[in-house]
Amino acid sequence: MADITITLAQRTPPSNPEQSYGTPCVIAPGSSGAYDTIVECRSAADIALLGWGPITHIVANALKRAGGPVFALRSRSTAPGAIWGNGLVKEPGGRATLYVYGRVKLSGADANGDLTWGAKALGVSLQVQSGGALAAVVNGKAILLTIPAATPASDVVTFWNGADPGAVQAAALATIKAEGTGASDAGTTLAAYAFDLGTLAYVGIDSGYRVYQKENGNNTALSSSYSTKDLTINLHTDADGTAISTANDVVANIAAGAVGKFTIIPVSDGTGLAGTQSGLTAIPFGSSGAVSASGTPYDRANLVVECLTVGTVGGSPAPVIQWAIDFPRREDARTFGRGNASLALLARRSGLRAQITQQTGNSKSLTHSFDGVTLNIQLGTTSGGVPNSTAAAVQAYVVSIARLRAAYLAFLPTGDGSDVMEVADIVRLTAPSVTYSAPTQIPVSGVVPIKNGAVDTGVMLTFTGVLDVGDKWAAQFTAPASSVDDMASAAAAMLADQTRRASWITYGSPVSRTQASTISTQIQGALNSKQEWALLQVAEWDPESQTFASWEQARVADWLGFDDQLLAVCAGECTNASAYTGRAMTQPAIAVACGTAALAPYHQDLGKVKVGPTSGIVPDVTGLWCDTATDTTLADNRFITLRTDEDAPGAIYFRNSPTMAEPNNTRNRLQYLRTDLVVARETKLTLRQFRNSPLDYQTTLGDDGTPVGALTKGAAADVEGACNASVAREMLRKKLDGEVSVSPLASGQKFCVVDRNQVYYNPPNPATIYVECGAAKRPPAERGRITVYDRPE
Length: 793
Fold this sequence. Notes:
By secondary structure, the chain is α+β, with helices and mostly antiparallel strands.
């Protein structure tokens, strides 16, 4: 019907029904907005005020799981995001070739009559015949040169480089050089000879290499040397200084050192004279396309850029690219070897394979070959020919090579890598699941911002040259981080606000034990006014620079003996589909712990497995970098961690929810702490109703031994009754999980008791009501024991 209008709209997430005690405050870096200023987030539009960055993922996860509001404060980025030191690393879609064309020598009457030619193209040949006058005839790429008898070599050079039409054509195909003075007679005959017999083809398999084939003195031996990525080849020369190395000679001399850098092969049979160059010449690494990056990353990213069409930047047609920033999952890594001899390789992009082979012979260095698809790690040997490449050495080797690091994340999955590795057959690595951007044509300027409607990385790429189909570039971005002082500055703004109160503060950047002391002082200082706790995160594991065991031990050692019942600390990372961008990201556990705490009633353990409206599997978490299912070290040392479950493959849960209280502290569980803070809050809100209200006190010693100045029994009963009613109403109210927050009270037990053993009125001191309050906790089940009999009774 033409009179019906359809509007496509999105609903704002519903309000958190437990917002009185489930409203988080999130402090972390973002790219937009004022620092230390509260943004009350209830929708994606509110999050957009913070720009992009770590804060957006934590806030969005909490909104998605529990609804709003979420109070967010952008903190300063003490450590800005960065692009790894290698920049964007190129992997060409095709292979380009550098040809060093072969040479031909025509011997003269003596050394001063010798002539050499160097080809300028493939397929060139030269034939020399004797005749009555200097002449050159070119047929295609075949040159026929006529030299009269008793013609000095210098005259031939002059003719070749002159204006004769035939000579002009010949000079376009080959250069000429008199090897001596040129004063002696040149030769007059040479059978048709193909320059390709000495032509060498260099193909780059890594970027940045250059080569220089040169003559260098008389009677010099063939030699070669590297200066970083510059290869100089001194060709073998004779007594007159003429280079006489063949193409095969050059290949034999440099082939071993070229592995992993470039390939070198003769174009023909390699028996001809190798060519010479005027200087260092780049060995092409695929197309001439190049990329540079600018800007400061707003967030972490695993950037992969791929060219979809051939094109010239600034020309027509312009190339088309696409990009993605998704991270791979640890679970998709392939492990080679076992124990201390194991190495894990995780593909950062699609289409990769790997194998491990063992070199034979003595004193072989660890090396590799990589064609952009298959990595062949070639293990080394000792001087006695014994294999000696340990897993740690191989891991460090892969990390040290930019192209390999851009393609593979290499880490030690277990142990310390101290044992020697063994060979492994070729395997195809699991490709990460990514969401590519829409195809983007590179503009004339070459500048492409890595952003779209879902993501803004803060980075711009500038392309130059000619791009080929399949050209790829990769880089890693780190996330910005705030110092503890900068986070404390933002938290102070939240704690000072008189109109809004958070239930806890999530400090989003990693902290150490020493730094946590600053937060501890801040939260403790606000206990009377706000009754809040803090959620923290320790430093992340960097699998490229340390083993998991060493990272884990360092975290435990750092926090050993730390005691603060108001702090809960997360450890480890997970692969999480961001609720804000939808992209798969390696996120600290705090990114999902905050949302889980917002959803869970305050009496509930974050690790509650039972499926319910506030418990069960942690959604949008597809993998773990720190799994405490079997290694419980971190959980045993009071860190909040994530785990898999052997009885529910693919499911991920929080293991439990400890606080940083010592184990014998009754608030060593987050749900105990949260419940006590709610009891304190409810009691405080009731007690404030008695502010400036007159209360009776006893002027003599009470019959129950209570002191002079204590509240009378009646006054105490009024205060006690009001406080009990308030706390009971909250504690016994069924929450979203359908449960009350406390165990049943014993006969005669109360939530709140007014302490009449304390003096209420003792001038000139302020009249003070003393209340003790608390709630019987409901301990979570941690273990079970099953006894199976052969038959029931």
